[in-house]
Q: What sequence folds into this?
């Protein structure tokens, strides 16, 4: 038991050091995350100015069957009008979890697009999910079930998404995450009467 | 006078050892994990290098200060505790001030805790030497490691994207130039090949001298 006081004292000092640093930096770290997401949504919904967290609880079942709470943001324009919605969704990719931020138009009819918050797909292949040519296909696609196809036109805005060649699993993962979260959230928002019920 | 001269000579020797004679990557083959993992581009490599310098410096200072209190059975435990503390702090700073780099480096920043260079320097140098030598040793080894990472990263970044520091210096064939980027160089394959070739070269040069 010799010198165990050294261990106890230094653990305490080091712990304190970490705690102080963490306390000092955590607001900044949180702000960085929020800024990043807002920056991405602003690209997808150019009129976005303000983001309001929705009070209603929305829960979705992930592809692995787990229930997860989703924070939905109402995106407001400069004139204080709702221009769309945004939320985060995640699922497993080829190598690691893929975390997306998804934006929709104000009626929840069309997808405004998505961006990748974090992913670890194969460089040169799977990480092309971040590239415009793939992401642009979601822009204007109907907010509902999406389907992955291997051959087709990328230019047409429909529910068919053309996969990245050499990265079918990564493409499939993105399509499933978007499709799964959008359909479930849309249904619940309709039930709660947050969005219109007319176009069913 | 001769005493102080001998001291200065020793400091220089310690500093230069890390840069070439005992270069952590090329000569000691330590810290291979970050060497292979973060050298796809120069910016993350440089960030990683700076983190390692910071952690190495802090841990060498602390270990050197408490070297007389250390008992053999507590030695490794205390080293790890010290290193882990400073790595956590470095990680928090990266997340707060350079979030993009922190994202790119991902798990490799926390993994500095198990980087053998740092624990090796604590064991070999800081736990046996005074504060001055430990600080100089940390700087020499840290800078040596950083330079090595940057050399590897420059080669890989140029071959895989035609850019350096994310500034395009060779026109790609897709933009009307002649250079076809090698996607493989940004993947682990590229890391192994580049490291292997450079190690061979370094051995040849060092062997000729000896």
A:
């Amino acid at each position: 038991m010799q010198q165990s006081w050294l261990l106890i004292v230094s653990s305490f000092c080091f712990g304190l050091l970490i705690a102080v640093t963490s306390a000092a930096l955590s607001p900044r770290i949180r702000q960085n995350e929020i800024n990043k997401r807002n920056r991405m949504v602003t690209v997808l919904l150019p009129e976005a100015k303000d983001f309001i967290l929705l009070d209603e609880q929305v829960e979705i079942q992930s592809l692995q069957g787990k229930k997860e709470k989703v924070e939905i943001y109402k995106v407001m324009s400069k004139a204080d009008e709702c221009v769309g919605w945004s939320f985060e969704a995640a699922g497993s990719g080829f190598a690691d979890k893929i975390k997306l931020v998804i934006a929709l138009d104000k009626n929840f009819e069309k997808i405004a697009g998505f961006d990748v918050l974090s992913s670890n797909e194969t460089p040169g292949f799977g990480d092309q999910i971040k590239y415009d040519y793939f992401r642009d296909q979601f822009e204007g696609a109907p907010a509902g079930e999406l389907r992955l196809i291997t051959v087709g036109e990328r230019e047409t805005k429909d529910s068919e998404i053309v996969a990245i060649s050499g990265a079918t699993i990564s493409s499939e993962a993105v399509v499933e995450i978007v499709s799964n979260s959008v359909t479930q959230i849309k249904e619940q928002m309709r039930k709660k009467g947050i969005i219109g019920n007319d176009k069913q | 006078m001769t005493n102080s001269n001998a001291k200065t000579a020793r400091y220089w020797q310690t500093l230069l050892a890390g840069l070439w004679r005992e270069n952590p990557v090329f000569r000691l083959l330590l810290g291979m994990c970050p060497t292979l993992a973060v050298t796809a581009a120069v910016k993350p490599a440089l960030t990683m290098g700076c983190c390692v310098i910071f952690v190495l410096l802090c841990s060498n200072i602390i270990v050197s200060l408490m070297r007389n209190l250390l008992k053999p059975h507590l030695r490794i435990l205390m080293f790890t505790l010290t290193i882990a503390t400073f790595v956590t702090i470095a990680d928090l700073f990266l997340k707060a001030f350079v979030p993009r780099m922190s994202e790119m480096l991902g798990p490799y920043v926390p993994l500095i805790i198990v980087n053998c260079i740092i624990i090796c320097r604590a064991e070999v140098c800081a736990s046996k030497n005074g504060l001055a030598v430990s600080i100089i040793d940390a700087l020499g080894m840290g800078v040596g490691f950083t330079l090595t990472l940057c050399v590897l990263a420059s080669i890989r970044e140029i071959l895989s994207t035609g850019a350096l520091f994310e500034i395009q210096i060779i026109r790609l064939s897709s933009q009307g130039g002649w250079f076809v980027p090698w996607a493989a160089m940004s993947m682990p394959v590229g890391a192994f090949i580049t490291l292997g070739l450079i190690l061979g070269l370094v051995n040849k040069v060092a062997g000729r001298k000896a």
